[in-house]
Amino acid sequence: MACRAATAEAHMVKAELVTRIDAIVRQFGVTQAEAARLFGLSQPDVSRLLRGNFREYSLERLLRLLTARGRDIDIVIRQPRSVGSGKLRIATSETA
User: Fold this and answer.
1) What is the pLDDT of residues 18-30, one digit of tens each?
2) Under DSSP, is residue 43 helix (H, G, I), strand (E, B) or coil?
3) What value, to the nearest 5°, has the Cα angle with vertex 56 and ends 74 and 72?
4) Spatial separation of the C-alpha atoms in residues 57 and 53, rounded to whole Å
5) Helix, strand, or coil (residue 76)
6) pTM of the predicted model, to two decimals?
7) What would the pLDDT profile of 38-78 be if each residue is shown by its tens digit?
8) How far is CA 68 from each of CA 38, 39, 61, 78, 92, rounded to the nearest angstrom?
9) 51's torsion region: left (phi>0), alpha (psi -120 to 50) or beta?
10) Euclidean distance between CA atoms 39 and 71, whole angstroms
11) Burial of 95 (0-12, 13-18, 19+ CB in 10 A)
12) 3-state DSSP call for residue 93?
């Protein structure tokens, strides 16, 4: 059961990263083909990614897509705020 929860939590983090990627695409106001060039992907890959089909993308790959577009990513490891297992979460200081 714990493995399922960890998988679900990782999926939610990936979904948040894809949301950030989508925000970058919207910020630049580009087509999917142009976004594909920006991210080094194919247009069909961008389409699948932005439609929520990102299971085959690792967290590392999504992070690399964001850093390639000039986003800084900080990973912070700290004591949990409550008793129990730790949590994965994304916090941003900007809109994208």
Assistant:
1) 999 999 999 999 9
2) helix
3) 15
4) 9
5) coil
6) 0.80
7) 999 999 999 999 999 999 999 999 999 999 888 998 888 88
8) 8, 7, 10, 27, 17
9) alpha
10) 12
11) exposed
12) coil
